């Protein structure tokens, strides 16, 4: 058994070590089986287009016959390409983020990239440390859902970056048409015969896509002559924080609008579900005086005790679009002379989903 030393700091040494390593494993066996030289077999793995289709097929058949398994570690040493993508998400408590992560991971079947995931919990210093950790793993790109680090800073890292539902001036992005979602929510609550329409959300800068929900909601209410109120409040990122804030919200709204039908547009399906549960515990049912719509169409909206109306974000479409953009950029960087690529911004239309929490 022959094993050569590996010096990871130097590409030349790493490439030599890779050649010796796979030589020991199977390249020589494949060459002997096919009658091709080891150089030709190596070209099959690293530059298949340099071989004729007939010779590619002969080597592919040999791999099947020999039950060959690709040595990923060796390929990384040889090329410096890991096929890893880093993901930074704010948290896994919000059902939207966990479902988006689920859908991004599912793109492996199509794009072949693997993922390293960190939850930053909205702490910039923590997220910067996570990004440095990801870069140490030689990731080829990043998908960032967390809004904490400015896009200008993200763009300065030497990897392609795609943002989802966050400020995106300097990076590519995929977002929902949040403005249209706000219009759809107000329209549904109007059709539900509400006396007062209420939207609760955090106070967000205009450049954050989710701020469009509030603008769309307000414009739709004004254009239709509807009574409305926007309540700015940060409900936190834990169940306890959400519950405490929403209990207070219910108390305040029932005091101010005691005999009126209240239509409330929550900022996401997680908060909509907490509101639903608070009302169910208080009344044993969802009173007719409360109409609820969320935003996401994450699984919790349809799995709730009373399935919740929501503005659907087409999460699987967003995940696939993000990987399509990122994959194109990562592949471009692998070329001998990569071309500069300007940021791409794609906007996905929302789909209104009417369930049992609106009349």
Q: What percent of residues are in strands?
A: 15-25%
- Order of strands across the widest beta sheet? 2-1-3-4-5-11
The best one-word shape is: elongated
**Alpha plus pi helix count:** 14
Share in helix: 40-55%
SSE order in H/E notation? HHHHEHHEHEHEEHEHEHEHEHEHEE
The span between the termini is 74 Å
Tell me which oligomeric state these chains represent: single chain
Helix vs. strand class:
alpha/beta
The number of strands is 12
Biggest sheet layout: 6 strands, parallel
> From the alpha-carbon coordinates, what is the Rg to the nearest angstrom?
26 Å
Mean pLDDT: 88
Outline the low-pLDDT stretches. Answer: 1-25
Question: What does this 3D model show about the protein?
Answer:
- This protein is α/β, with parallel strands linked by helices and about 350 residues long.
- The chain contains 14 helices and twelve strands.
- The strands form two sheets. A six-stranded parallel β-sheet has the order 2-1-3-4-5-11, sandwiched between helices.
- Strand 3 (about 140-145), helix 8 (about 150-155) and strand 4 form a beta-alpha-beta unit.
- Helix 1 (about 10-35) packs across helix 2 (about 40-45), helix 5 crosses helix 14 (about 315-335) and helix 11 (about 240-255) crosses helix 12.
- It is elongated, with a radius of gyration of 26 Å.
- About 40% of the residues are buried.
- The model is unreliable at about 1-25 (pLDDT under 50).
